[in-house]
Amino acid sequence: MSDKIIVIDYGMGNTKSVCRAIEKMGGKALISDNNEIISKSKKLILPGVGSFASGMNEIKKKQLDKSIKLALSNGAYLFGICLGMQLLFNKSDENGPVDGLNLLEGEVKKIPIYNDNKLMRKIPHIGWNKIFNQNGNSWDTIFLKNIKTGTFFYFVHSFMAIAKNQSDVIAYCDYLGINIPSVINRDRVFGTQFHPENSGPEGLKIYKNFILKNVG
């Protein structure tokens, strides 16, 4: 089981699409909501489609929050996708405030409808957008290896994470004048606001990097 990437099933993620992407890039994946399996895993993916409150409700109902944190304490890597990335933070305003997993400092808020020039943004933010390097650090040491700043990825979301520590934000996208955190990373916790599995060859590179990441 240790060589498999566990895709956490809490009833709200596109788990099968994530598994197909992992397997296409040569990895092994298992969809599971079994706390024992999750707590002993070395690589976890937390996907997500839907609302923050519903997601946390399902996670807590299945006690997956405890098994995720136990896995991290045992040296696992955790990769959150879209809603899964947002759930990593302290709390969200979506149908809330609602507490998150508290793995990253910050909160999740609705994308502002208007920009500074009173132009209206379409919410949700749907479609392809470029991501840019947030802090100038090399991406070769994280899950964005072999991906260039300015690469397009596919987004579907109405809320955005606001990190307390800007050093946790690795990449952002510009949506009509607002910088939306698009990739986060702190220690062994990683996340993308976009969906790599829906982002073509460049998105698959992220899964390949996660597969190849050494756990030690």
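Above is the first protein from milestone M3; the second protein from the same milestone is given next.
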Amino acid sequence: MRTQYDEQLAAMNYLLIKMGTFIEKAIDMAVKALIEHDKGLAQKTIEYDNEIDDLEKEIEHICLSLVLHQQPVAGDLRQVSSVLKMITDIERIGDHAGDISEITILLADDVYIKRLEHIPQMAEATTKMVSDCIDAFVKKDQSLAQAVIAADDEVDDLFSTVKNELIELIHEDAKNGEQAINLMMIAKYFERIGDHAVNIAEWVIFSITGQHKNTRIL
């Protein structure tokens, strides 16, 4: 019985790492499609979300099986319950990568009104946050999880920069308005990805310490 228990815990952790890797790839695909005006890659990113959803369901099934049949206690219970919360935020990140790609398809035939500089920086920062979250969980590294939470300030600052630049472009020429709003939405989705990464980091800390702050977004 213990062998099966350990195997299920190992499978849960393996699939969580795999889901994190998929999310990193989804973000990378989304921003590459945006930069390169690549409708095909954007569509592929949208479809890729199905694989992320399937992983969420598989992990959820393992977690519920552990709770119902193995009755984990103490640290193991915190680990399982944390993973159940984490995969919800990870899945939402996949949704946002798809949201970004849907807007990319709308913009693919247009010349951008500004050079895309800070949005790719947001993508890079949020990808690192997600990767560090998963590493922190696997390594039980509370300091790394705290670093993820702190890193969200950089993403928020980048969003403010993008927003201010786009507002200025609208003031310069009202014809820039529609594309500016779409680009601002993309930046907002990356800002939300950062918030989800913070949620994940807070659940990592809970899995280690048993203490948790309220999640920042639904």
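Note on the second protein: The mean pLDDT is 93.
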